[in-house]
Amino acid sequence: MAELLGVTWLEAGAVALATVGMYVALVVLIRILGQRMLSGMSSYDLAAVIAFGGLIARAALGESPRLAGGVIALVTLVALQALSGVIRQTRFGSWLVVNRPVLIMAGSEVLQRHMDRCHVSYPELHSRLRQSGVSHADQVGAVIFEPSGTLSVIRRGQPMDPLFFRDVVGAERLTESSPGRA
């Protein structure tokens, strides 16, 4: 029974190393594919996340999972998450891990290149505009694709402080002469 619960020091190291490797691989994939991968999860997205978890667990724990190995994997993941939070506090870490917000619409103009970059479809954009009470493109001051993967809608006529947009990719499209710009 004890062999089903415990692990050797070599096995513990292997579990921790495999967990670190899978965590880093997932962070790199999210960084490459963009934050869109994690936003607005549909039932298909939820199924994919469950599958990711299964794959990570299988890779971390191997053929014969043990309680101690699972605890080591869990502690390693929590430690990596805490470490990534500390790294994100630095300028380089923030650049490395956090995606910048991207301007999707400047006024009524849709920036197709930015939509493609962020994997945002017109039905998703239109849905978010409707949820924000926008019924016509002329009512839009800006739409930003946020690092969280959500779309922020700023209505035309609302004052826009340039400080709030300085890190937004494409913010130069929001010129001082635009209506609603502070």
TrEMBL record:
<feature type="domain" description="YetF C-terminal">
    <location>
        <begin position="96"/>
        <end position="158"/>
    </location>
</feature>
<feature type="transmembrane region" description="Helical">
    <location>
        <begin position="12"/>
        <end position="32"/>
    </location>
</feature>
<keyword id="KW-0472">Membrane</keyword>
<dbReference type="InterPro" id="IPR007353">
    <property type="entry name" value="DUF421"/>
</dbReference>
<keyword id="KW-0812">Transmembrane</keyword>
<dbReference type="InterPro" id="IPR023090">
    <property type="entry name" value="UPF0702_alpha/beta_dom_sf"/>
</dbReference>
<feature type="transmembrane region" description="Helical">
    <location>
        <begin position="67"/>
        <end position="87"/>
    </location>
</feature>
<keyword id="KW-1133">Transmembrane helix</keyword>
<dbReference type="GO" id="GO:0005886">
    <property type="term" value="C:plasma membrane"/>
</dbReference>
<feature type="transmembrane region" description="Helical">
    <location>
        <begin position="44"/>
        <end position="61"/>
    </location>
</feature>
<keyword id="KW-1003">Cell membrane</keyword>
<protein>
    <submittedName>
        <fullName>DUF421 domain-containing protein</fullName>
    </submittedName>
</protein>
<dbReference type="Pfam" id="PF04239">
    <property type="entry name" value="DUF421"/>
</dbReference>
<comment type="similarity">
    <text>Belongs to the UPF0702 family.</text>
</comment>
